[in-house]
Every structure is written in C-alpha cells, then in structure tokens.
Amino acid sequence: MSLPSADARNADQVAYWNGPAGQRWVQRQQEQDALLAPVADMLLARAAAGAGELVLDIGCGWGGTAFALARRVAPGGRVLGVDVSELMLARARELAPRGLPVEFVLGDATVYPFEPAKADLLFSRFGVMFFADPARSFANMRKGLRSGARLAFACWREPRENPWLMLPLQAAYRHVPRLPEVGPEDPGAFSFAAESRVRDLLGRAGFAAVQLEPVGLTLDVAIGEGLDTAVGTAVGIGPTSRALEGQPAALQAAAIQSIRAALAAYQVGNRVPLAGAIWIVTAVNP
Ligand SMILES: C[S@@+](CC[C@H](N)C(=O)[O-])C[C@H]1O[C@@H](n2cnc3c(N)ncnc32)[C@H](O)[C@@H]1O
What angle do CA 131, 275, 63 make, to 5 degrees? Predict the structure, then answer.
C-alpha cells in the first residue's frame, strides 16, 4: 500500500479499508449502491451542487456519489474523490463514465494537501467517521474550501436506532464471540452518532451554521431480491461481517442460519425492510 502521506493514527483504518472491508465493499458494489441509494438521493438534494462547482467527495469509495455529483457540476465544474483505499479507487476508475469531470486520488483526508480555498462543496456519504482526530481532519479539509463553501455529509446515528445493522449482529452473537468493545468516539461507523460531538468538532475545525437533521430510513436489505440477498447484505458489511471474519466454518454457518431466521421475520415478499437512522449534517465555511 503506498499512501503518499497519512496521519499515523489512522493506520488501522487505512489497513482495514485496504484489506477485508475494502474487498467486501468492492465485491458488493452494486448491492451497496442500491441499498444506500435513498441516502445518496437525500444528501445530493441537500448539497445542491450546481454547474461549474468544484466538489470534494471524501471517502468516496468506488465513486457512486462522485459520479452523481459530476453530472450536477458539468459543464465547467469538477469532482475530486479522495479515499485511502486503493481497492475502492481501482473500482471507481474502472466504473467512471467517459467524459465525466471526475478525478480520484489516493489520500488520507486528514493530511491531504487540498488546493487552498478552491472548492465550493465538501461532500461525503459515510466517509468521514473513520478519523482518529476528526477536528484536525475537518480543519485540513476546510483549508480546501473557499469562503462561503458548503459542507454536507451523512453519518449513522446510534446502533440501537439502526436495527438493519444490529439485528443480524445480535443473531450472529448466539454463535460467534462478541467484537471487542469500542468507545463511542473511536473511529468507526457510529463515531458521529452523538450530535454534541459533531457540533463540537466541526466548530473546533472552524465551520459555522452547523445543522444536524435526523432522518429515519427504511432500508430494504434484500434490495427487492429476497432473503438470500438480505443475508448477503447482513454478512457482507458492517459489524456482522467483522464478527464472522476468521471464525471456524461451522460457527459461521450456524450464525448465518440464525441471521436468516431473524431476517425472515421481517420479510415482505421479496423485500426485507428494516429501520435505519442517520444524521444529515450541513455547515458553512465562514
Ligand atoms: C463506509 S465507506 C463509504 C464509501 C462511499 N462514500 C459510499 O457511500 O459508498 C467509507 C470510505 O471512507 C474511506 N476512508 C476511511 N478513512 C479515510 C481517510 N482518512 N481519508 C479518506 N478516506 C477514508 C474508506 O476507504 C471507505 O472507502
């Protein structure tokens, strides 16, 4: 892995997104894009990117939202997708439609040398919760924004408000050991669940007019394809995938059976709708 520069404290996350998590996300690219499409739609509407703008898509992954943004800023605008994962970026470059004004760079957003005071919008769908020192990371990203530029990102609220992730995990725990405890502020999917923390760190990074809008979601973890796909979603991403990683095959099989039974209770035809909860966070660079 050859990240040009990175905050050493992000090393675990860099390894994780260049290892098992990156592999699983890339394998599940189409399903993940379909599953998270409602979040993309809402966030893109709030971000309101317009023709001619320069947008930074942080933790852009394989570029689904970067492509959508690029369609909005053309003609005359440009999207820069930044990510620490070579695996994700390789897929993004493969998928990039010809002629779209989008470019991808490998970089840790905490230290990436953004062109100063240029961008109109800092955007991220679930790509900003993995920093060891988020106030420093956001201060660095803010350097790339012109005065008056907007910030718009989506992050998960508390685990208990996200049964689409926690229901399968609880089912898996009947068979596999619990994951090591993580603190509420440790880098990871839920590290921005607390409104006060997000307000505090964005304030310390220099942003103004910070707003957090709570949004409840119904996520069809089967994406309309039935129970097998729902099980694939449950074991393919998030905490359940980590809990199963490296476990003996027999335990994995037993866990998957329990997950299947738990999800079946919510099946409606080919859909398995489960609740999720996010913040849509917006702010302004003064
Ligand atoms: C949950 S995925 C979201 C991917 C994409 N935004 C999406 O919605 O499909 C989180 C992404 O953040 C990236 N990431 C984690 N830490 C990062 C950092 N310090 N700088 C840039 N990207 C980072 C990961 O490599 C991963 O692609």
Answer: 45
Q: Is the pTM higher than 0.90?
A: yes
Summarised one tens digit per residue, pLDDT across range 200-243 is 999 999 999 999 999 999 999 999 999 999 999 999 988 999 99
Of all protein residues, the one whose alpha carbon is nearest to atom 19 of ligand 1 is 108
Query: 3-class SS at 150?
Result: strand
Pairing of strands 78-83, 54-58: parallel
Confidence at residue 4, expressed as pLDDT on a 0 to 100 scale: 80
The residues with which 276 forms a beta bridge, in sequence order, are 217
Compute the distance from residue 126 Cα to the ligand 1 centre, in Å: 7
Output the furthest CA–CA distance in the chain (Å, rounded): 57
Which residue do the tokens 């099980």 mark? Answer: 231
Q: In what order do the strands lie in the sheet with 54-58?
A: 102-106, 78-83, 54-58, 119-125, 145-156, 273-284, 208-220
Check if 16 has its Cβ closer than 6 Å to any atom of ligand 1. Answer: no
Both tokens assigned to 198: 């997000």
DSSP state of 268: B
What CATH number has the domain spanning 8-158+184-218+278-284? 3.40.50.150
Residue-level pLDDT at 3:
82
pLDDT digits (tens, 9 = 90+) for 175-186: 999 999 989 999
Residues of the chain with pLDDT under 70: 1
Q: Which of 16, 89, 126, 140 to mutate to test the pocket of ligand 1 (most atoms within 8 A of CB)?
A: 126
Give the residue among 272, 140, 125 at the shortest CA–CA distance from 189. 125
CA distances from 151 to 10, 90, 135 (A): 22, 26, 14
Residue with CA closest to ligand 1 atom 14:
59
Pocket of ligand 1 contains residue 126 by CB under 6 Å: yes
**What's residue 1's pLDDT?**
52
CB atoms within 10 A of CB 199: 16
